[in-house]
Design goal:
alpha/beta; Nitrilase/N-carbamoyl-D-aminoacid amidohydrolase; 6-stranded mixed sheet; 7 helices
C-alpha cells in the first residue's frame, strides 16, 4: 500500500430534488479530483434532504434503480478515484436504508454500510427527530480495503458510539469516517470534539464530509466537514458553505501515534462491580 494519498470532502447543502443534488455533487467531485484527490467522500443522504416522509419515499429508488448511484459509479471510473458516498436514502420496503457506498476506481461497488444507530431525540430547542420512523437500522460494522488504507465506515450519529470505532480500529482500519447531516445545534456543541476524539483514541485518521446550511425542508445543518490526523490535529475543516476541503494523508502517522500512545494494545475486558462487593 502507498503511504500517502490526497483525500477530499465534498460539503453539500442538500435539496429535495435528487437530480439537483447529483448536479451539485458531480461538480464538486470533479473539482476535488482535478485538485489531486484520489479518495473523495460526500455527506450523509447525498441524494435527498427531505423530512416529509411520503415525499421522501416517492422520490427515492431501490439500490438497483437509483440513478445517483449509477452516475457515481460511472464518474468514479471516469476519474479513476475511490468515491465514498457518505450515504444515499435507498428504498427498503416500506422504509428507507441510510446506506453508504464505497466505489472503486473501476466503478464497482466495493462496500455497503447501513447506519446502525438511529437519531431519535427531543432537542432543547424544540426540534424532534425520529429516524426510526422512516429508516431501518444496520446490523454490523463494515471495513473495506482501499489501495492505500483500510477504511472503516460509519454515518453521522454513529460517531457518538466509541465502541464502533474501536471495533473498526481493532479490525485494522487506519482511516475512519462519519459523513453526516448533523444539526446546527448539536454540531456547534459536539461535532469537532467527537471527530477529534474518535481519531485520538484509535490512532487513526478521521474523515467526515457533512451537509451544511439551511435546507429546503427547513432543517439547518452544521457543516464543518473535517479531516483529522491520528494525533488529533485538524488538517482541514470547512465552514458552513458548500465546497470542498482537501488534505494529504500520510499513513506513517498512524504507526507513530499508536506507538506513542499504545491504547489499542492496552485494551482490557472490564467487569463492573457494585461498590462494597469483594474483589475476586
Amino acid at each position: 500500500m502507498s503511504a500517502t494519498f490526497t483525500a477530499a470532502c465534498v460539503q453539500m447543502c442538500g435539496k429535495r430534488d435528487p437530480a439537483e443534488n447529483l448536479t451539485d455533487a458531480v461538480r464538486m467531485i470533479r473539482e476535488a479530483a482535478n485538485a489531486g484527490a484520489t479518495y473523495i467522500q460526500t455527506p450523509e443522504i447525498s441524494n435527498i434532504v427531505n423530512r416529509d416522509r411520503p415525499a421522501l419515499l416517492a422520490s427515492i429508488r431501490t439500490e438497483a434503480e437509483d440513478p445517483m448511484l449509477a452516475a457515481f459509479q460511472k464518474l468514479a471510473n471516469e476519474l479513476a478515484i475511490h468515491l465514498h458516498i457518505g450515504s444515499l436514502a435507498i428504498k427498503n420496503g416500506e422504509k428507507v436504508a441510510n446506506r453508504a457506498f464505497v466505489i472503486g476506481a473501476d466503478g464497482a461497488v466495493r462496500a455497503r454500510y447501513d447506519k446502525i444507530h438511529l437519531f431519535d431525540v427531543n432537542l432543547p430547542n424544540g426540534e424532534t427527530w425520529r429516524e426510526s420512523n422512516t429508516f431501518t437500522g444496520g446490523t454490523g460494522a463494515v471495513a473495506v480495503d482501499l489501495p492505500y488504507a483500510r477504511l472503516g465506515l460509519a454515518i453521522c450519529y454513529d460517531v457518538r458510539f466509541p465502541y464502533l470505532f474501536r471495533a473498526l480500529a481493532d479490525a485494522g482500519c487506519t482511516v475512519l469516517s462519519a459523513p453526516a447531516c448533523f444539526t446546527k445545534q448539536t454540531g456547534e456543541a459536539h461535532w469537532n470534539v467527537l471527530q477529534r476524539a474518535r481519531a485520538i483514541e484509535n490512532g487513526a485518521f478521521m474523515i467526515s464530509a457533512a451537509q451544511a446550511g439551511l435546507h429546503e425542508d427547513g432543517r439547518e445543518t452544521y457543516g464543518h466537514s473535517i479531516i483529522v490526523d491520528p494525533w488529533g490535529n485538524v488538517l482541514a475543516e470547512a465552514g458552513r458553505e458548500p465546497g470542498i476541503i482537501l488534505a494529504e494523508i500520510d499513513l506513517t502517522a498512524v504507526n507513530d501515534a499508536r506507538s506513542r500512545i499504545p491504547a489499542l494494545r492496552h485494551t482490557r475486558p472490564v467487569t463492573v462491580m457494585r461498590a462494597g462487593e469483594p474483589l475476586v
